[in-house]
Amino acid sequence: MPSRLNPYISFDGEARSAMEFYREVFGGTLSLNTFGEFGEEKAGDAADKIMHAMLETDSGFTLMGADVPPGMEHKAGNNIAVSVSGEDAGELRGYWDKLSADGAVSVPLEKQMWGDVFGMCTDRFGITWMVNIAQRPA
């Protein structure tokens, strides 16, 4: 398998619902593993929390996520955004519509000065997304 780079998002108890939501947005196959499945002795109340989730889509996307392990503090920040880009306007607008629903739009999805259609939103789980629809050369 070749090396790959993909986002891995930490959640504070919402990994299951967030990853299921992203499966609705992007489609694909979602695998979920809980702390309890792996016999995490310290899991206690976190036995049903997600230790590792991986969404692999037909478009070639891989998105991973997990709940913060027992005993660790969740530190939310604004130091990362997940970017989805390409030329398939219908597909990308579909992602945008679902990601921005029940979220907050900071940059509306519209044509930008560089010629592409771009938007930025924060989804209902607090994750920032950037969607860029590249304009095909004339």
UniProtKB/TrEMBL annotation:
Q: Which CDD domains match?
A: PhnB_like (cd06588)
* Ranges where the Glyoxalase/fosfomycin resistance/dioxygenase domain occurs: 5-131
Protein name stated in the entry: VOC family protein
